Amino acid sequence: MEIFKETFEKGHEQIVFCSDPAAGLKAIIAIHSTVLGPALGGLRMWNYRSEEEALIDVLRLSRGMTYKNAAMGLELGGGKAVIIGDPQKDKSPELFRAFGRFVESLGGRYITAEDVGTCEEDMYYIARETSHVLGLAGKSGNPSPVTAYGVFLGIKACAEWVFGSDDLRGRKVALQGLGHVGMEVARLLRESGAEVTAADIYPYRAKEAREKLGIKIVEPEKIYDLPCDIFSPCALGAVINEDTVERFKCRIVAGAANNQLKDGSFAKRLKDRGILYAPDYIINGGGVISVAEELSGMPYSLDRVFRKLSVIPARLKEIFALAVSEGITTAEAADRATEKRFEKVVA
User: Fold this and answer.
1) What percent of the chain shows pLDDT beyond 70?
2) Are residues 104 and 202 part of one domain?
3) Catalytic residue, candidates 80, 91, 271, 308
4) Rounded Cα–Cα distance for residues 106 and 103 (Å)
């Protein structure tokens, strides 16, 4: 992998490789852009198959954060960090404190928060070493419920666009991933009257969802083949790829996962199949709205945050209309609309 070529093409400003053998830390921080402000983006911990896979992931995720923060109207740039390790086995206070020292060394250019594989307790240890961390207990806390509610509002906006009504009663949803966000999305969908079938790579999560929510469970690989109205990817990225794109039997793809498209060509393939795609960094923007509230200078207010989530369905409808008028994919329309904000700042 040619690192500088990759970063030049994606426009990254800085990549920091973090190593602390005593703490067992192997991490990468990627700052994509600080044009609109400090680079905000969560810390993901995952058992990557290789260091190259981790680097590719953090580069894609950090670029997505730039666009997400801009699309949500925040005065923040985009960044992301990954720790290479098993979040079920490899966590320790020393690990996260070591990571916090690297964040501190960046002098506020990067602000971290929780993401897949990390939680409020992890942020507590990071905060022992740096003030550049959000999502702390007693403040915004775990952003997952807010992210999930934003996704739910986005799904309703998609349903209204495609079916003429945002009423989800009787709508069939195939949901992939039952982590903190996916489980809450499933709950909201069930409460709205949707018929939810879900899958997760962890059997204990699937069991919990079946017992608590009364939803149907299928094996992870079968989720792509279910006839449904809405496919909701709420796990990891690149799930819309050459192996899955022709298998979907839905009218809408709308979910919480980041980087759902393996690359931009798959947005065109969804469009050609008559499937509406909700750009991921728009529909899952609730979490950054929540943690960014800590920077407002006012006491954190969940009610105020939930009111701000109305930006998500509004942005989606603008993007869908632009895609139709310009004859482009919704992914292209989202990028085009968001990039206008950068142009105004740079100009």
Assistant:
1) 96
2) no
3) 80
4) 6
**Cα end-to-end span (Å), the chain:** 34
Question: In the annotation, is 80 catalytic?
Answer: yes
Q: How confident is the model at residue 347 (pLDDT cuts 50, 70, 90)?
A: very low
Let me know if residue 245 belongs to a domain: yes
188, 153, 125: which is closest to 289 by C-alpha?
A: 153
Examine the domain organization and report whether 273 and 153 are in the same domain.
yes
Determine, yes or no, domain membership for 148: yes
**Left, alpha or beta for 87 (phi > 0: left; psi -120 to 50: alpha)?**
alpha
* Whether residues 100 and 168 fall in one domain: no
Domain count of the fold of the chain: 2
Instruction: Decide if pLDDT at 187 tops 50.
Output: yes
pTM for the structure as a whole: 0.87
Residue 112, CA distances (Å) to 149, 219, 294, 333 in order: 22, 34, 12, 28
For residue 139, tell me if it sits in a domain. no
pLDDT of 142-169, one tens digit each? 889 999 999 999 999 999 999 999 999 9
Domain that holds residue 100: 3-65+76-127
8 & 110 share domain: yes
pLDDT (tens digit, 9 = 90+) per residue, 6-44? 666 678 999 999 999 999 999 999 999 999 999 999 999
